[in-house]
Amino acid sequence: MIGTFITEWEQGAIENALLLQDIEFYADKLVAIMTYYQFDGWLINIETKLEDSKAAEKMRDFVRILTEKSHASDPKSLIIWYDSVLETGELKWQNHLNASNRIFFDACDGIFLNYNWKPELIKTSVENSGNRSRDIYTSCDIWGRGTFGGGGFSAHVASEIARENKTALALFGAGWTFERNQLSKLMFQLDERRLWEGLGNVEVLKNGDARDGTNFWNSQVEFNWKVAQGDVTCFQVENTGNSRMSQEISLKDHFDENFLDEQPPIVISASFRGENLGNLTALKIQVSLLDAEKSTVKNITLDVSSFKLKSTWNDVNYTFLGYGKNVRHVIYKLTALQLENSSCIQVTNLNVRIINLKIQENEGLCNHIDLRVQNQLPMGTSFNSGLGTRMCIEGKEVFSGNWIHLSEMDFCLTKN
Questions:
Q1: What b/e sequence results for 175-196 when a residue is b if at least 16 CB atoms lie within 10 Å of its CB, and e otherwise?
Q2: What span, in angstroms and rounded, lies between the C-alpha atoms of 91 and 105?
Q3: Which phi-psi region, left, alpha or beta, contains residue 326 (left: φ > 0; alpha: ψ -120 to 50)?
Q4: Cα 16-18-93 angle, rounded to 5 deg
Q5: Cβ–Cβ < 8 Å for 333, 249
Q6: In the chain, N or C terminus with fewer CB closer than 10 Å?
Q7: CB 269 within 8 A of CB 186
Q8: Residues pairing with 196 in the sheet
Q9: How far is Cα 326 from Cα 41, in angstroms, rounded to an integer?
Q10: Residue 322, SS3 per DSSP
């Protein structure tokens, strides 16, 4: 685990000037922070132009001194430079290692390349690195902003380029799976497994988060659902009588019939909240599975009665299993019943996912990474998640049960 030291925009120029006035002082401070909090190094990201080449040389000296002092404190520590400023002081992302940014690479343990590279630039970087190809961190933005392969569940495309060229891999935004599913623990877990393991799951419901307005949703009675923009983009209905919207999904548009007849798990989910609702049955979420002739095979009404429809978001889900062959359609129906004045219901993260229980070996980041296995004792890091299922002091159990306390956990074992 390494920290990030970043300067950017106008304030960054001021901070850079202060830094370059006393590089020894600030190197000592960063090493002291690293040592005290027991993490493993720094990523240095200078995203503001420097005054000139002399200032760039001074920044290079800072990086070199920081690396030396860091290694003196912890020989296994890492100082990594982000591909940003050039030897001239100009801020210009290169997307590869070259003569213009080489002075910073030579001063530390590696370079984190900017995200807009092409495969040929990674090859060039390796050629320019001498025998330090593993000190080049080929980057991938999981959010997909300009990154090769598109990021997201296709992040393995970029990681395969890193593996083919024998470079290291740097992932930006690995929390994407959580950030896109903050209201649904189950969907987050499914996306994590898809990103890392290649466990296939396909979203077949369209526009479940209202980002495309009310497109793809049909009205069967008076349509009063609207799109609300707030802390979360969502569908909203208020102060009205019954209002229903639905979406029919043809599974044959996504899968062949042989796969469908294997009865893959179908996961349904929704997030919802409300205000001033005295009636807990004010919201109904119904999902039906239909056969090829559109006759109902199975249906479920997601139970929201145990939740308080207040300002906090609630998450509900259901998994169809063993529902029989010949299911070819899904209907997702959302109904707001009679609402009183000042009442409001909001829903988002409406999801229908089809799970392929077979790992897709050509997908998943773990299938495209050369792992560096730790096989020497001690196996661990002083930085930890602060989570545990029991607490031991000097090998003796003093507490049994789940606990969360970052400062009380000394050592976190890793897998061999």
A1: ebbeebbebbebbbebbebbbb
A2: 16
A3: left
A4: 5
A5: no
A6: C
A7: yes
A8: none
A9: 56
A10: coil
Question: CA-CA distance, 288 to 200, in Å (whole number)?
Answer: 22
In our burial notation (b when 16+ CB lie closer than 10 A, e otherwise), range 149-168 reads bebbbbbbbbbbbbbebebb
Question: Which residues partner with 273 through β-bridges?
Answer: 346
Q: What is the Cα–Cα distance from 59 to 107, expressed in whole angstroms?
A: 10
**Which residue in 174, 208, 204 sits closest to 191, CA to CA?**
174
Residue 30 CA: distances (Å) to CA of 4, 14, 58, 257: 10, 18, 17, 59
Provide the residue type at 383 as one letter: F
Query: Can you tell me the distance from the alpha carbon of 14 to that of 8, in angstroms, rounded to the nearest whole number?
Result: 9
Can you list the positions of beta strands (E) in 84-146?
Answer: 110-112, 136-141
Contact status, residue 271 vs residue 298, Cβ threshold 8 Å: no
Tens of pLDDT, residues 163-185: 999 999 999 999 998 888 777 77
Q: Among the listed ranges 70-84, 98-112, 244-258, 309-323, which one has the minimum average pLDDT value?
A: 309-323
Which residue do the tokens 């898809």 mark? 194
- The kind and range of the H/E element at 15 are helix 9-21
Residue 191's pLDDT is 87
Q: Confirm if 197 and 364 have CB atoms less than 8 A apart.
A: yes
CB 284 within 8 A of CB 301: yes
Continuous H helices in 228-333: 257-260
Task: Tell me if 296 sits within 8 A of 288, measured CB to CB.
Answer: yes
Distance, CA of 31 to CA of 60 (rounded, Å): 17
Cα–Cα distance for residue pair 22/178, rounded to 1 Å: 40
Dist. CA 75–CA 404, nearest whole Å: 30
pTM of the model: 0.70
Q: For the chain, give the number of residues.
A: 416
Cα–Cα dist 386/295, whole Å:
51
One-letter amino acid for residue 47 of the chain? E
For 203, other C-beta atoms within 10 Å of its C-beta total 15
Distance CA 209, CA 269 (A): 12
